[in-house]
Amino acid sequence: MAILQVKQLSKSFQIHHLQKKMQAVKNIHFSLHKGEFIGIVGKSGSGKSTILKSIYRTYLPEEGEILYESARFGCLDLAKATARQIIYLRKHEIGYVSQFLNVMPRITSRQLVENALLEVDYPIELAKDRAEETLRHFDLDEALWDAYPNTFSGGEKLRLNISIATVKKPRLLLLDEPTASLDAISKEKVRQIIEKLKRQGTTLVGIFHDLAFMEGLCDKVFEMEAQQTNTFVKDRV
Known about the structure:
alpha/beta; Rossmann fold; six-stranded mixed beta sheet; four-stranded antiparallel beta sheet; 10 strands
């Protein structure tokens, strides 16, 4: 059974000062089973992030369905889910890693990772241990654990962002250029976590420009340029 089915997804944006309507994506279609990883590739501006944000419901699609097999709600069209359902899913089932860290001020990196676990009812001592384990895995300097992230470099913020999203072992994980500003060692750490999550059953949708990183990791590749004619998903062998 597919855990995620994107069917004929379309989204456009109104550019009011130009009085124009811009088509971001049209008739996007793919499906994923538990533990599969699809990589979305294409040139900048082709609509890759729009797909992820529509699944996460940051954007509301104009047409199509996003059918997600939720552990709590069963088969749910994310395009029509209630705000309460989306809040629950973001907290308990669906993770999102963007290139940018957007968190409440005056909360330390350690607290951010701990809070991600506490909000899904981890015991406090276990949350503390898991948070430290995760921060250590991503080589975030211990001197930064009790610092505020607004002082971090771009790479440090991205590693913290990945820590927060992956520590809960989400059922579905969305990755928007998660290795964009990382060095080779940090990229390998991300790869290890993705491989571990896949083995544990997490389903992943990721955007990458680093095609070498995708090799041997993605089960399927979705090519954005193909949507201009006949949108398709190509199995990665």
